[in-house]
Amino acid sequence: MISEALQEVIEELADIEDRMERFEFIFDLAEEVLDLPVEAWTDENRVKGCQSQAHLEIRLDNGVVHLRGGADARLVQGLMGLLALGMHGQPLDVAQAMTVDHIKEAGVLNSLTPSRSNGVRTMFDMITSVLEAMNHGE
Q1: CATH of the domain spanning 4-133
Q2: Which of 34, 42, 99, 103 is the least buried, fewest Cβ under 10 Å from its Cβ?
Q3: DSSP secondary structure of 31-43
Q4: pTM greater than 0.70
Q5: Cα dihedral 58→122→74→97 (10° resolution)
């Protein structure tokens, strides 16, 4: 089961047919991710393979996922916001229930250039691999 907030956004995005309107909606999602200040950007939290400068801090505190992120592009920050809606503040099992298929269902990936689409997948893979490692006590 995914977070209720993510489900609502998926449904809203899926109803938006105009590509530019969808981008505006994604830009607004940038507010959903807690800010990771530029001073905290490190090579360790850099999203490797992302076209933009993008950084994510992923923590697990008492079984609850916490994300902070930052990017040099508003679109990338908005895509982080989409991921945060599904994972931030959620129990680990709910966060891990989110898949790339949920992003596809929202119609986001086919609105992006191939490099941006790959960047979303890279961010998602980074988060899920860190959460998997944390779940196994690494």
Answers
A1: 3.90.1010.10
A2: 42
A3: GGSEE--GGG--T
A4: yes
A5: -60
